[in-house]
Amino acid sequence: MPHIVCHYSVSPNMPPMLDVMKVLHAVAASTGIVKAEDLKIRALPFTDYLVAGEQRSFFHVSFYLLAGRTPQQKEHLSIALRQALADLLTHIHSISIDIRDMDPQAYKKRLLDD
Questions:
Q1: What is the CATH number of the domain that holds 80?
Q2: pTM to 2 decimal places
Q3: E-only strand ranges, 10-69
């Protein structure tokens, strides 16, 4: 169920996005707060952007999960993801993480049978 949505500035120094997503997957799962098999990750590149009024590089993660985790769990998840990205994306000016609760009554999905 958890969704990780990445928004990032296009940069020649950016590692392959599949590698970045695999790091996010591994780190999120390692916290024990979410299950690896439930994670869905996608990334959207931006060529047109401003950070503080200038074209500075950025990487932003929006992490959506069903409500119910404690503030401490969400902070732990946020810090772990930020640190992993800081270690991987050393040249990126701004790295940010936003953990969002989803309303379990409003969230609906459909899966095909295997």
A1: 3.30.429.10
A2: 0.92
A3: 40-46, 58-66
